[in-house]
Design goal:
two-stranded antiparallel ribbon; alpha+beta; 149 residues
């Protein structure tokens, strides 16, 4: 997902979207309740439980465009991902310290590792240059259209 988001941000930047779409992800493993909750008039499909709260807290402290795993999740995927262990933190409403692992890329058997590249927002100068290039491109397209006529 991280790699695809990098690709999408680059594509959208080329299409002129100045504000990048940024995400944070937190993943935890544990027991929870999933299903339809509420009355017949106000039924909602949702997920609840302490482990869900841990995932939400991980998401809230994750770096922009980052993916944070709890130890419980990391233990299941440690052979598949490269991580950086972060300092364990206390979280509101959680009565234990949470060990955090920031995913840096995916391990691939015998292949070069996939890594996630941080994409920064373009500066005002870069945005101005992009706008000038778009205008020039529009003029070139008009000239080509005239030549074809």
């Amino acid at each position: 997902m991280q790699t695809r988001m990098v690709e999408l941000r680059e594509k959208w930047a080329q299409e002129g979207f100045a504000e990048p779409f940024e995400i944070r992800m937190g993943v935890n493993t544990g027991y929870c309740n999933v299903g339809n909750f509420g009355s017949d008039q106000r039924l909602t499909y949702t997920i609840i439980g302490g482990e869900v709260n841990v995932a939400a807290r991980l998401e809230s402290v994750a770096e922009v465009n980052g993916l944070y795993l709890s130890y419980e999740t990391y233990a299941h995927v440690q052979d598949m991902v490269d991580v950086e262990q972060k300092e364990a933190i206390k979280m509101k409403g959680i009565n234990r310290d949470i060990r955090i692992y920031s995913v840096k890329g995916r391990k691939e058997d015998g292949k070069e590792k996939t890594t996630v590249t941080k994409v920064t927002k373009p500066t005002k100068k870069e945005l101005t240059e992009i706008e000038k290039l778009k205008e020039e491109l529009s003029l070139i397209k008009l000239e080509i259209k005239k030549l074809k006529s």
